[in-house]
């Protein structure tokens, strides 16, 4: 950490990571691999790692790779399909798989089947307009090697073979279409996160503190950061000094970014969106579905609310979810406070927040409708994907909170961003991650971007360059434009992560 070593004054740690989710875990492991002597302290307000957005029940994105998520391929006004975001996300997910493969090969995390399994990714639509869209989407994505193995069909029998439940009870006269990618995976980011933290705890100069809340951050004149910490069990308070701070606290990142008072953090706001699932309780139904089936979102719906009938592996057991249904809460975290939203409003972000609200009235209307839904309304939405569904086979499960980013915009005053945003001080001494989807699936690429911003001098050294290329062999190369490299990379990661191995599961 050549740049950080230029600071003067006594420090307690080289790095402080706030929040024990997938982002902090990824950054912590990356930094420790790049510089083993680094001292790191991690603070988490709950009593376990990955209990908020990274948890399997809370996380809407259990392996986002843009194979089936239609919101990443919008139809433009001229009728063409925009594929830029889908290609970027698919490539970033391949980067994540390379990093996880490195961790498995080095024995830094346990058996990969604890967190990743093969599961087909499907898109499914009905009605002529939507079928036309899906065909155009398929044709557009076929131009990119990352999607070369995608299959497309409008044949009812073929769709029924791919996912029997979604065709059972459907009219044969219905016009439907589907795409399928057998390369899809299901990732339990809660399990992966805990695996990475378990490894970090065993390394020298790494300390992980649960039930500890960050109360304030302040930059010293010597360039170091003073972090005020409260032990929620003993109520003791103390100050810790570090050269670099990462705020990876999910919905809790915005309030801490505001406390840091860095100029780059001015003008950001947050719009919280909560989620709910219908969880299947009928084991016979769960056994019959083995795919992630995504459809089209309702007008005004945020990306996290794209409806899907989702097979997941949670603690080695197969589960089936439908949703998520969106809701509204002023909390920024599932275990947060109802005062989170009002307390986040500052003089510098009032205008962007009001402007973003005025420009997203469809979203407001959608959330009101979602909050007012009855169990029968939720069942009606489920029946569009599973025509024979009965309410007795499903129960409501509360998911996590997402805080969408609101940022200043010269033309509109403020815009609502459906993605992730890295905000860092100009000197690279502190950084925060705001936003949500696709989040966890692209965590490695997001943290590599953070390294380019906050550890630029270190990153340019031959030692760091060589190590990063060892962890991520395609670093600096574009898989989207190299069919041979894409194939070789996927073959290797599938072997190491045991993605192609059929695994017995408990239902």
UniProtKB/TrEMBL annotation:
The organism's place on the tree of life at top rank: Bacteria
TM spans (from-to): 12-31
Main enzyme class: oxidoreductase
Recorded catalytic activity of this chain's protein: (S)-malate + a quinone = a quinol + oxaloacetate
Cofactor dependence: FAD
Any one GO molecular function term: (S)-2-hydroxyglutarate dehydrogenase activity
Pathways per UniProt: Carbohydrate metabolism; tricarboxylic acid cycle; oxaloacetate from (S)-malate (quinone route): step 1/1
One of the protein's GO biological processes: tricarboxylic acid cycle
EC number(s) reported in the record: 1.1.5.4
Keywords on record: FAD, Flavoprotein, Membrane, Oxidoreductase, Transmembrane, Transmembrane helix, Tricarboxylic acid cycle
Classification via PANTHER family: L-2-HYDROXYGLUTARATE DEHYDROGENASE, MITOCHONDRIAL
Family in the record: Belongs to the MQO family.
Name of the protein: Probable malate:quinone oxidoreductase
Gene that this polypeptide is encoded by: mqo
């Amino acid at each position: 950490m050549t740049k950080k070593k230029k600071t003067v004054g006594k420090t307690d740690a080289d790095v402080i990571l706030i929040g024990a989710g997938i982002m902090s875990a990824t950054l912590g492991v990356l930094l420790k691999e790049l510089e083993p002597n680094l001292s790191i302290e991690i603070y988490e307000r709950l009593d376990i790692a990955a209990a908020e957005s990274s948890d399997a029940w809370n996380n809407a994105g259990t392996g986002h790779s843009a194979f089936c998520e239609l919101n990443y391929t919008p139809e433009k006004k001229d009728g063409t399909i925009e594929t830029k975001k889908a290609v970027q996300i698919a490539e970033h997910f391949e980067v994540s798989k390379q990093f996880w493969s490195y961790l498995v090969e080095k024995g830094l995390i346990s058996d990969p089947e604890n967190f990743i399994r093969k599961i087909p990714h499907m898109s499914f639509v009905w009605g002529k307009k939507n079928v036309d869209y899906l065909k155009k989407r398929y044709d557009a994505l076929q131009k990119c090697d990352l999607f070369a193995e995608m299959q497309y069909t409008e044949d009812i029998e073929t769709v029924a073979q791919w996912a029997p439940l979604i065709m059972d009870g459907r009219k044969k006269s219905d016009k439907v279409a589907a795409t399928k990618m057998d390369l899809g995976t299901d990732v339990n980011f809660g399990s992966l996160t805990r695996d990475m933290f378990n490894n970090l705890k065993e390394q020298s100069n790494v300390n992980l503190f649960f039930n500890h809340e960050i109360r304030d951050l302040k930059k010293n004149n010597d360039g170091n950061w003073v972090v005020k910490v409260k032990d929620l069990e003993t109520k003791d308070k103390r100050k810790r000094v570090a050269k670099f701070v990462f705020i990876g606290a999910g919905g809790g990142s915005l309030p801490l970014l505001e406390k840091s008072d860095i100029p780059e953090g001015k003008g950001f706001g947050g719009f919280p969106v909560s989620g709910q699932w219908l969880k299947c309780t009928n084991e016979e139904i769960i056994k019959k579905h083995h795919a992630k089936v995504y459809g089209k979102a309702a007008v005004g719906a945020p990306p996290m609310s794209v409806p899907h009938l989702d097979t997941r592996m949670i603690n080695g057991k197969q589960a089936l979810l439908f949703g998520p249904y969106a809701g509204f809460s002023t909390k920024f975290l599932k275990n947060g406070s109802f005062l989170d939203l009002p307390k986040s409003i500052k003089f510098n972000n009032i205008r962007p927040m009001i402007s973003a609200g005025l420009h997203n009235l469809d979203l407001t209307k959608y959330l009101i409708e979602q909050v007012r839904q009855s169990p029968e309304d939720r069942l009606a939405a489920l029946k569009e994907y599973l025509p024979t569904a009965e309410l007795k086979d499903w129960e409501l499960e509360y998911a996590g909170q997402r805080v969408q980013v609101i940022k200043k915009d010269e033309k509109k005053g403020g815009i609502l961003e459906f993605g992730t945003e890295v905000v860092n001080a100009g000197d690279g001494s502190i950084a925060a991650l705001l936003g949500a989807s696709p989040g966890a699936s692209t965590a490695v690429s997001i943290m590599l971007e953070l390294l380019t911003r906050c550890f630029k001098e270190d990153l340019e050294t031959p030692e760091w360059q060589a190590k990063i290329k060892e962890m991520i062999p395609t670093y600096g190369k574009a898989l989207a434009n190299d069919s041979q490299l894409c194939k070789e990379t996927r073959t290797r990661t599938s072997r190491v992560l045991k993605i192609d191995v059929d695994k017995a599961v408990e239902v």
